[in-house]
Specification:
This protein has helices spanning 2-16, 31-61, 63-66, 119-135, 159-164, 166-173, 177-187, 203-212, and strands spanning 70-73, 76-80, 156-157, 188-189, 200-202. The protein is mostly helical. The protein has two domains: 31-67; 69-212, no CATH class. A three-stranded antiparallel beta sheet has the order 3-5-4. Helix 6 (166-173) packs across helix 7 and helix 7 (177-187) crosses helix 8.
Length: 215
């Protein structure tokens, strides 16, 4: 009996040796402190440091693009390669129609969100087609001349859309159509890497080149 009791006491003593004492208890960190610290660190790193580093690198490697791809003439900013502008005079190339705000509004970028069956859209497109067809009889109207882009600020048109406008521009400026078409050819950007995107012409750049033409 004594032997059994002694063995039991030894087991109890050994077991108690593994019990954690108050001083060995893990430190308690309130969740709210950790959350605030994490928020502050990520805000500084991702909201301040990262944008500044990326902007700095871009400014060194791609200064023109990082500044907004701005176009200068005589030291004055006349626009951006990335944003369409409204041109309505016969002597200029016209961009795609725009549903951004009241048209070409960079602060209200977006499409019309009208379905193909919407009568307002159908009426507007048919009116544009009729007007353009009368302007250049016998020539099919390029689709991008009567459809808006998703942003309403697409700065480019297809070479076909530019060529369609050549007779009007040549007549308004008193120059040959060949001169206008040559300008279109020179201003056409081909597919990136030969496979990405479609050939395109920047309307603003093309109009600025028109103004540099000599009769």
């Amino acid at each position: 009996m004594n032997t059994v009791a002694e063995s039991s006491n030894k087991y109890t003593l050994r077991a108690s040796a593994y019990e954690l004492k108050p001083k060995d208890a893990p430190a308690h960190h309130p969740v709210w402190k950790t959350s605030i610290l994490f928020t502050l660190i990520t805000t500084v790193l991702l909201g301040l440091v990262y944008p500044l580093v990326v902007t700095g690198i871009a400014s060194v490697l791609f200064p023109h693009q990082a500044a907004g791809s701005l176009i200068l003439r005589n030291g004055q900013i006349v626009g951006s390669e990335l944003l369409a502008q409204s041109f309505t005079a016969d002597r200029y190339f016209h961009p795609r129609p725009s549903a951004a705000g009241n048209g070409y509004d960079a602060t209200a970028s977006g499409g019309s969100n009208l379905a193909q069956s919407n009568q307002k859209l159908v009426t507007r497109m048919q009116g544009d087609i009729d007007k353009l067809a009368a302007e250049n009889p016998g020539k099919p109207v390029p689709i991008d001349m009567v459809t808006t882009s998703g942003s309403g600020l697409d700065p480019d048109i297809t070479p076909d859309a530019a060529a369609f406008q050549a007779p009007r521009i040549a007549k308004a400026r008193g120059i040959t159509e060949d001169a206008v078409r040559k300008l279109i050819e020179q201003g056409t950007t081909q597919r990136q890497f030969g496979v990405l995107g479609e050939p395109r012409v920047n309307v603003l750049a093309l109009n600025l080149a028109l103004d540099q033409l000599k009769k």
